Amino acid sequence: MFITPAYAQAAGPAGTSGFLIQILPFVAIFAIMYFLIIRPQRQRMKAHQELISNLRRGDTIVTTGGLIGKVSKVVDDGEIQVELGEGVKVRVVRSMVSEVRSKTEPAKDNG
C-alpha cells in the first residue's frame, strides 16, 4: 500500500555532543550558585575579617549575642576586653563581634 520503508539517518559520532548537552545544565547551575551564593559569602567573610582586625580601644561594638559595649582593651589577636556597663568588663573572642557602631579616631603623631 502506501507504506514506505523508514531509514535511520546517519548520525555523527555517538555521545560527544550528547554528553556536552547533558553536562551544560550542571555547569550553568554551578555558575549561578557561584555568583549568587559563594562569591557574596566570601566578600562578607573578607569584610568581617577586616572589621575585627581593625578593632581598637574605644570602639563601640555589638556582639553576636546582642551585647553592646565599648572596647576597653585589646588583649591579643584572638580576644578583646569589652566594658558593658560601669565597672562590668568581659573578655570576648574577636570573631564574636558582629558590628562596630562607632569607630574611634586613630592616635595622631605629633612629630
TrEMBL record:
Pfam families: YajC (PF02699)
Keyword DNA-binding assigned: no
Spans traversing the lipid bilayer: 19-38
Organism domain of life: Bacteria
Keywords: Cell membrane, Membrane, Protein transport, Translocation, Transmembrane, Transmembrane helix, Transport
Localization: Cell membrane
Membrane topology of this protein: Single-pass membrane protein
InterPro entries named among the record's database cross-references: Preprotein_translocase_YajC
Main location: membrane
The protein's assembly and partners: Part of the SecDF-YidC-YajC translocase complex. The SecDF-YidC-YajC translocase forms a supercomplex with SecYEG, called the holo-translocon (HTL).
NCBIfam families, per the entry: yajC
Family: Belongs to the YajC family.
Function: The SecYEG-SecDF-YajC-YidC holo-translocon (HTL) protein secretase/insertase is a supercomplex required for protein secretion, insertion of proteins into membranes, and assembly of membrane protein complexes. While the SecYEG complex is essential for assembly of a number of proteins and complexes, the SecDF-YajC-YidC subcomplex facilitates these functions.
Protein name: Sec translocon accessory complex subunit YajC
Source organism: Roseibium sediminicola
This protein's encoding gene: yajC
